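Researcher: Let's try something more involved. This one mixes different molecule types, so please make sure each is placed in the same coordinate frame as the others.
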Amino acid sequence: MKNQWPVASTQLPENLTGYLQLGTGYCFMFACIYVPNFPVAAVFRAEPELRSRAVAIFEGKPPLEKVFAVNESASRMGITPGMTKAQAKLCSGLTLRPRSLLQESAAHAALLDCAQSFSPCVEDAAADTVILDLAGMESLFGTLPEIAHNLFRCAADLGLDANIAVASNPEAAVLAARGFSGVTVIPPGKESESLGALPVEVLFAGRESEEREGRKNRDEQKESASLLATLARWGIRSLRALAALPEIALSERLGQEGLRLQQLARGTVSRTLVPVEAPVVFEEAVELEYPIVLLESLAFLLNRLLDQICARLAARALATQELRLTLELQNLAGVDPQLGTFGIPSESDESKSAIESQSPAQHFVSGRQGKFCRTLRLPLPMLDPKLFLKLLQLDLNAHPPGAPILKIHLAAEPARPRSAQGGLFLPPSPEPEKLELTLARIAGLVGEARVGSLELLDTYRAESFRMRRFVPGAAPETNRQKIAAEEKSAVAALRMFRPALRAAVTLENGELVRVVCSKKKEVQGSVLWKAGPWRSSGDWWEREAWARDEWDIALQNADDVALYRLVHDLLGGGWFVEGTYD
Amino acid sequence: MVSSGIAAIDALTGGLPRGCLTEICGPASSGRTTLLVAALAAATRRGECCVVVDASDVLDPQSAAAAGVELTRLLWVRCGESSPQARLEQLLRAADLLLESGGFGLIALDLGDLPPQTARHIPLTTWFRFRRAVEHTPTVLLAVERQSIAGSCSSLLIKLGSLGSQIREQPMDSQFPAPTHAHLLTGLNIKAELVRSTLNRKPAGSAEITFASKTAWAG
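Model: All components are placed in one shared frame. Result:
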């Protein structure tokens, strides 16, 4: 649906500073952000490459789908709302898209984010309209024209082509935003003059969007249509003409509604805003007409969603520490059951991932009813769409969805951005963003469970440690004297064989004489010296009970002597070389 | 130069150079891992983040903790393939990524348990690339090997060897020899030789020292 009214040139008075103290009293100022042709704008936000093409949005159940909204190019081709999809399809060069409530809801949320990044007092007037109270904003954001232009830029950054209007009352701001394209600033007291050029249809523009949403009943629709017809019959085409009508005569003929419309046309209706506390939810979604199979295509769409989410987070001065990707998959019943091993999580996958979730950055959340979910948890709040895309790509390469994708839903958990004070004399530390990407790449190389930091477990069992996610903490205060004292003695370290090497041990009179490891040729020879056994056992109350005798032995190899730790498994009955002292 | 964590080695080499490749080579039980964990302990105590890229998955967390390594500041990359060639490839790719990422105080490449013939497959150009990547950064790049393989790309080459073990014997009153459980391994005697150092203008020629390490339970 195109903008129906003549577009006035952007009105920018030369000097607009000090509006808030004009005259003797305090003058409030309000801004309105209006997105014309909102359903099309929501689609353009999701698919920016369509902006240069003729686009029609349709809705309804097949085969009764009808055109719901069109852009200006499509309108010039003769496509109008109400046409059937089949009729519209006859027009070559027209791009048809189904109406997506998810995209519209995300666009509306972006609109609110844009408004709330400037003012805490925001009214959610309609899906395509928000009103801001600019009281006190001058000292923060500059003069009113600067604020208006910044609002325009912010909306553009969020993918919305919006009209911005600033006026001394909310209704005048709304009318100016709906009537004039671009940025409009109306000086206080000049509302009637500025709005006068607008056609009377602008007074009913808000109702049209309500009609579209189905929020308006038929009586109200009829009343609007009859009012408009009456005004047209009187020859009232512009707001200036309506404002000039005598009030009493107008009241006698059109009643209170007529007076209200006249006050709107004069820009004298004043009311208080009804502020909303917009939920801090950052979600974006794309419904696909055709399922996608390749991860490259998915990455392309993810890039767009991430850009949108990050722009919204940035508008609210937030970052994110958790990204949730949900993919709706096609025709799970027809998918090869073996695909489960390639990515569609099964129950066993879930339980496995629950175990592994302590160390890796990414893991399964759930995997039922044709939905494939991945969660990307970050050690610190970050706001870099390129980084997020690479991390998601690496994660999806390791865990592909396994079936064609129909719908992509991405949600970000907001968090306060980190603030860190750098220092010249701090020890070197990797940048968190780079480190996260490097860790994800290395995890793709060696496996998620094989990279991270160590955590020792409180047990005497051998190999009692687990891998954790590597998150370097703050550097401790270094005490040079303490370090020097600790450096004096070196501790002999053990070099583990994983898994432990099974050994053939020759005993004479219960004494170790010779050890041979068939798997590692250098670990064999006669025992020169031995100490032990050191017996230990544990977990006898559980299935994984263990009991062992440890020996420290010196073996004479072909060339030299090496020290090993030899273990006799008392429950399993085997001999193992566990490691070498090095 | 930063401390290696062992005073004798610091006296021999002047410490481990930042922005350079240092090779530690020697056979099994020669003290390579002792020196590695000592260097890791010293670096983590300074508040630096360290990485061990472990080609054969041999690092013992208990030994590292006993040596004083702050485990929260240590990133451990365990190469997991079965063939030595594949593990070597993983190590080299992980090392490339870590050097590119930057910000680590010490990056250790543990090639100590790879067969020498496999380790020698690393082309010199790879070592040259590593050296260039670490140049002008505060990172100490450490390679633990059986034999020196980086050639002239390493700025410091330390060769280690074993001089035997230290054994404490519980004194026994009887005329019979002490049983084996009366013996205790208390440490290693290690010989360290500075084979090459391109860091200062010392006369060519190697220098040797000996030092002892003690086991965590030796007291």
